[in-house]
Amino acid sequence: MGIWKKWSEFKKDNVDREGNVYGAYELGDKDGEIIYVGHGLLRQRLMSHFLGSGSHAIPGAASYRVEEVGGKERAEQRERSLIREYKRSHGGMYPRYNKRLG
């Protein structure tokens, strides 16, 4: 199921238009495969994934989609839900750049 929004091109200009509100997001590669699921203040977290941004950079990210939620706790819950859903549909595998969540 994932996030039911259209993919947007993962460019700083596009990300800069996102609100800095809590939410969950998915990063996709050029083929539309989800490679990372995250949560947080959307603009801030998405900006942290650009190459050259340090340890949070996600190589191969070409697109993204977001889902705004009510707050930090709800964003964390939605991220966990999206990862569980991904694992169910991909034979127990995590998205390429997600670490195993406790």
Provide keyphrases for this structure:
single chain; alpha+beta; four-stranded antiparallel β-sheet; 3 helices
Molecular structure report:
There is one protein chain. With 102 residues, the chain is an alpha+beta fold. It has one domain (8-89): GIY-YIG endonuclease. It is 28% helix and 23% strand. It has three helices and four strands; from the N terminus they run βαββαβα. The chain has helices at residues 12-16, 42-47, 72-89, and strands spanning 8-9, 22-28, 34-41, 63-68. Strands 1-4-2-3 form a four-stranded antiparallel sheet. Strand 2 (22-28) and strand 3 form a beta hairpin. 28% of the residues are buried. The mean pLDDT is 92.
Report the structural category. Answer: alpha+beta
CATH architecture: 3-Layer(aba) Sandwich
What amount of the residues lies in strands? 15-25%
List the strand order in the largest sheet: 1-4-2-3
Note the run of SSEs as H and E. EHEEHEH
Catalogue the unreliable spans. Answer: none
Q: Output the CATH class name.
A: Alpha Beta
CATH topology: GIY-YIG endonuclease
* Domain unit count: 1
Tally of alpha and pi helices: 3
Oligomer: single chain
Topology:
Layout: E1 8-9, H1 12-16, E2 22-28, E3 34-41, H2 42-47, E4 63-68, H3 72-89
Antiparallel strand pairs: 1-4, 2-3, 2-4
